[in-house]
Amino acid sequence: MRLSTALISVASAIVFAVTSEAVNNPVVAGYLLLNPTNGPAKLKALADNAANIPINRIFLSFARPGMVYVPGSNTLEHVGLAYGTSGDYGFADLKAQVAKLKAGGVETFLSMGGWNYGCFPYVYTYYSVGGYGTSTPNYYKIQENGGSLAGCTEANMWCYTCEPKSEGTVLADFDIFPEPSNSSVWQAALTYIKTNAKGDAPVFHPEMVPGTQWKDPKNQMTNLVPGDGYYAKVNRDPYQDLVYLGKDLGLTGVDVDYEEMWHADYYKNGPAAGPWTNHQTTYKYAAIMQDVRLSIQAIQPTMLLATAASAAGGLSTNWWGGNLKNIWFNMNKWFPDLYTFVATTGGVNVMTYDLSNNQQYYECPDANTCSLSQQVNYYMKSYADNNLLAHVGYEIGTPAYPDYNHDPTHQLPLIQSELTAILAVQGAKGGFFWELYKGIGKQPDNVEVSSVAQQICKAALGASTPRCAGSIPQPGGGTITATPTATATATVPPTGTTVPATTTTTSGGGQCTVPAWSASTAYSGGAKVSYNGRQYTAQWWTQGNVPSSGSPWVDNGACAGGPTPTVTPGGSCAGTAAWAAGTAYSTGAKVTSGGFIYTAQWWTQGDAPGSASVWLKGSACTGTLRRRLY
């Protein structure tokens, strides 16, 4: 779509006004990871208390990069947001909550991408984790699950590098950012990139279509590209549709969370021993952002555009692979108007977390910069030194990297002393955190979410700002309350909430004398359950979250005996038949497989859900949350 000169002038004037407001009003933002089991209830709790929560922006996550939304259709069916499972898939309810948040002074953005929706398991394993020899931080996953790189196949999810085996992921859990070559807006974005690129010659790869077979020209292996190619079948541009959906939902803005590390490692350029360039990944990312920018200017000029960025993304020094270093530095160098548009409207939000101090892998920027606060301030300074406007990020609870079960000693969690040190330097500029309902995790000194939000809010908006005294509300009532010891507590849910009848335990796990966990039961903070031979304690109100998946459940250890744990199927799968290889399914048919609901996009028989593109993956039966990794 081409803008007229008049429309460009109007759009520029609106952007200028939005820019001034965005720069002068610090943002305190939290990501909300949605799922059909309790995601709507969490969002409702936030919306009902919008005027009193210690944040002024929420990022709803995540839409699939290959999403489809036809303007005016008012359905989330092909968005991949995991908000509803039937009807309009939660569109009307989501729109109503967005309106309540806006009335309460809270902006709402829809985020596209994230870790799972940007990880290609085969390529990430072979060219990122396993592409630099055996002495890399995550190579142990290959050794433990496949023995060697050659032993990694789809059957063992390419040795579980994108997600651990315990998550039970299948290929349908992952996605890549597509290149919608049939879109005129995408073609305009490519022209912009090719005209302004100053590094390696841009090369794009529209042949890598989600849901289709792709032959790796480097080793001749053929694999199914993760994701849903429905957008290609119906000739839609997902990045344009993100804007159409944002407009119809009444959102303040949209957010692109691009984390395709596999792309940088696969398409790197340079000598065999390094260092290399990752210019092709800068070009792809910038093309995506330009597509969204053009769509905003043509469809909803007042909409804001935000992005997540890697901690090392603002550095200009040599790149040795394995991350997204240099991407945002090069974007600003070659496409400064694009970077400025993003940075001064929705913002560039730097994921300064999941850091490590393991010097075996040179994970400290230098020998004297190893603590969490030192590294965070170092990376934020790299953005500032290169004139890149950006905002700092925090992670609640146990970091996703390095894996706590493999290397807990090199984790850098957000404890109070580190939070204080970061706020002393970054606090007045605002910031964001992951995630609104993530628990304190396995380290008891981690600062819980309400306290983190309150402290960021007071530093950015002023200690006397009323909302900064608020807490993050729990679904069904109650709040996660900030306490001096930085632990999470929750008030009792309202009358009518089911709680376990018995909470008798013995120390160290002991006998399984507590009730078995049930997906349909609501548990208040302090409730104890047994699951798969282990005992767990809820940190706050919860329903549908599998105990072994982490927060809000704390693992108290193995039981020595007692009743056999049972799991009651979640409500979202009730009444849906399990997939059968011998059954023929027509378009729209729903089945369960591997704990998830799948919908047939066309007639099929014998194609297993999770490995065939005909099946569109929907909600989890138990509502287990996928962890976000970096």
Automatic annotation (TrEMBL):
Transmembrane regions: none
Domain Chitin-binding type-3: 514-556, 576-618
Record keywords, A-Z: Hydrolase, Signal
Any Pfam family matching the protein: CBM_5_12
Signal peptide boundaries: 1-22
InterPro entries in alphabetical order: CBM5/12, CBM_sf_5/12, GH
SMART domains: ChtBD3
Protein name in the entry: Chitin-binding type-3 domain-containing protein
